[in-house]
Amino acid sequence: MTEEAIRYVRSFLLGAVQLPYNQWESLLGYTDDPKQFSHYKSVICPSGFFDKGNYGRIPSMPLLPLKKLEGLPFLFGEPEVEEIGGTKIIHADLVASAYFLLSRYEEMLRREVRDPHGRFPGKQSLPYRAGFLRHPLVDEYGLLLRRYLPEGSLPPLPRGIRFVDLSHDIDAPFLYRSWKGLARSLRDRRGIRRSLQNKFGRPENDPYYTFPQMLETDRKLTALAGNCVISAYFKAGGGNKPFDKPRYDLDSKDLQNLLGLFKGQGLSIGLHVSYEAGLHPRRIRKEKLRLEEACGGSVSTSRHHFLCAREPEDMEALEKAGILVDSSMGYADQIGFRLGTSRTVRRIDPATGKLGSLLLEPLTIMDCTLQDEKYMQLDYGEAKKYCLEVFENIRRVGGDLCLLWHNNSLAESKDAYLGRLYADLLDALPAYLA
Ligand SMILES: [Zn+2]
């Protein structure tokens, strides 16, 4: 196990990843050697999780129910804190607990647990089973540790949500503008004249072309709050699996205009990695080059279509393709904190314990997770309640929020509330911001 990853987790817990080592290292030690205690203001005692012979084996998995320290569940160690010579000694192993969540350790050990798309289901995860998936538990450990440190030891955390990413995956920019769309339009009994208009007329007529309305909603929030960005993830073709449909041509006039619309407003454009490249991650590089060619600029962010970043080590391919930040880390079937944190974190490979260069921006809430019958199946009221609960939990730790709303979720539909919910959530959000 590399010392580097453990040191990184210590700095992450303190919210000090940007600070030089010598500015925080004496604040939090990770040792059970009493001779070392006096070097630190606080010390977490290792529980044995990282020990050779234990790490990577099934008996290293935490047992339910979890023990709690000051109301917070932790995965390893004992709920005891003592003071020895002015140093707080914490026997709850918050370093191993945070590492377990941040590194997707559970997904490595439970390879046999996957849904039909090869994804680890949120409902099977320890955070869900232990009842804390909608809490950024690692960030909450950080708040707790600060209480054990002398005041002013660290820069203060923001009071409120620090940063918001309003993100959109462009899976289907249009419903009726392809030849298949024309056939669909006729099948939907929209009439020949209207169907031809959909195919050949202005894109604004298409029900999925909700971009002006979407950007206006986003703009209202970004005008109000400086700590807010808008991003869009485009598919770059390349995927030949049924779940990669509909495919669209980035060089077509419609897609060039759409890319122009996003770029003209200074929005971030990222790669929506195809379902097929999720199965064969080495294809990601080609898709990235294709998108860069089409949008005439470099692309350094990504999110997997269907959130199909399957195995923890698959993400190495993103690094090799030159992606710097990926935002696939949410569960498709449950909203909340797949990595146990709301903050962007460096990739840790649980198999090797090595730190990668890729940054993972946690995805907090995906629109269809709330409503889809395969996922949470919530009605409007419940969905809004759960989303606001998550906003509140991030506000309390001064963390970050990433929303994913698809353009077609904003299309009018009699049985979908997602468009209305998006507008209502963005209206409510300023009260939670830092
Ligand atoms: Zn997608």
List the helices and strands and how they pair.
Layout: H1 3-13, H2 21-24, E1 28-30, E2 42-44, E3 67-69, E4 72-74, E5 77-84, E6 87-92, H3 94-102, H4 105-109, H5 126-129, H6 137-147, E7 163-170, H7 179-187, H8 192-200, H9 211-224, E8 228-235, H10 253-264, E9 268-273, H11 275-279, H12 284-295, E10 301-304, H13 316-320, E11 325-326, E12 345-349, E13 354-360, E14 365-366, H14 367-371, H15 380-397, E15 400-404, H16 418-428
Parallel strand pairs: 1-2, 2-6, 7-8, 7-15, 8-9, 9-10, 10-11, 11-13, 14-15
Antiparallel strand pairs: 3-4, 5-6, 12-13
Helix pairs in contact: 1-3, 7-8, 15-16
This protein binds zinc ion.
Describe the structure.
The chain has 434 residues and is α/β, with parallel strands linked by helices. It has 16 helices and 15 strands. The strands form three sheets. The chain has a nine-stranded mixed beta sheet. Strand 10, helix 13 and strand 11 form a beta-alpha-beta unit. Helix 1 packs across helix 3 and helix 15 packs parallel to helix 16. The model has no long low-confidence stretch (mean pLDDT 94). Zinc ion (ZN) binds next to loops.
Overall pLDDT metric: 94
Principal-axis shape equals elongated
- CATH superfamily membership of the largest domain, which one? Glycoside hydrolase/deacetylase
Instruction: Identify the CATH class of the largest domain.
Output: Alpha Beta
Say how many strands there are.
Answer: 15
Low-confidence stretches: none
Helical fraction: 25-40%
Q: Structural class, please? A: alpha/beta
> Span between N and C termini?
37 Å
The share of residues in extended strands comes to 15-25%
| Count of domains | 2
